[in-house]
Amino acid sequence: MSVKKIKLNKKEETKTSKVKTPIKAVFTKEVIITENSDPARDLYNQSRYGIILNDGRVQLSLVEAVYLAEKKTIELVSSAGRKLKLDSFFKKAVRLEPNFFTRYYVFKDMRNRGYIIKTALKFGADFRVYNRGVKPGEDHAKWIVYPVKEASSLTWYEFSAKNRVAHSTKKKLLIGVVDAENDVTYWEIKWTRP
């Protein structure tokens, strides 16, 4: 097994659809669903945010919704139609996902670097990350990513399990370490034969 710190190139800004009027996205229980509009579908078609539903709306994950709300691409509203402030949405997200901020900082950093990052629950990981220029469905993800806090620790059993998941899915394992200043450092782990 080899472990190396990798440097992912910075990119100025992610190509996020520039919309004049933010897309309405309704937050109900644990789900965020956009309005049925061309700009909403462009979020998926151009940058692969969320998943397109049968009725043409786009369902976003919590981290995607916060990222797009910070960029003022979407406007979060409650099921009653009231505008949600970002700080109150953060509180709801943390209640739903206790590790939310750690996951969010890795997601945000990857998106800002120009990578498409999607959930990877079916792989047993937090995220899967595609090389720049590659969209899900066109090719396979390069990495599976596990966000961790700098102060946290993993047992050898947990570490080995994460590496086995990456190896069995033919992806590289990337550990995204979030420090106290919310900066992210990436460590790539892969199996090597002696």
List the topology elements:
Blueprint lengths: L1 E5 L16 E6 L2 E4 L3 H10 L3 E2 L5 E3 L1 H9 L3 E5 L7 H11 L3 H13 L3 E5 L4 E6 L12 E7 L6 H13 L3 E7 L5 E7 L4
Parallel strand pairs: 2-6, 9-10
Antiparallel strand pairs: 1-11, 2-3, 3-5, 4-5, 7-8, 8-9, 10-11
Helix pairs in contact: 2-3, 2-4
Write a structural description.
- It is built from 5 helices and 11 strands.
- The protein folds into 2 domains: 86 residues, Trna Endonuclease, Chain: A, domain 1; 74 residues, tRNA intron endonuclease, N-terminal domain (MutS, DNA mismatch repair protein, domain I, 3-Layer(aba) Sandwich).
- The protein is α+β, with helices and mostly antiparallel strands.
- About 3% of the residues have low confidence.
- Helix 2 packs antiparallel against helix 3.
| Number of structurally distinct domains | 2
Order of helices and strands: EEEHEEHEHHEEEHEE
Query: By helix and strand content, what is the structural category?
Result: alpha+beta
The main β sheet shows up as: 6 strands, mixed
Mean pLDDT across all amino acids: 88
Q: Helix share of residues? A: 25-40%
Q: What's the CATH architecture name of the largest domain?
A: 3-Layer(aba) Sandwich
CATH topology of the largest domain: Trna Endonuclease, Chain: A, domain 1
Give me the count of strands: 11
Q: Total number of helical segments?
A: 5
Overall CATH class of the largest domain: Alpha Beta
Q: What strand line-up does the widest sheet have? A: 1-11-10-9-8-7
- What Rg do the Cα atoms give? 17 Å
Q: How large is the share of residues in beta strands?
A: 25-35%
General shape:
globular
Q: Give the N-to-C terminal Cα separation.
A: 9 Å
**Unreliable stretches, pLDDT < 50, 5 or more residues?**
12-17
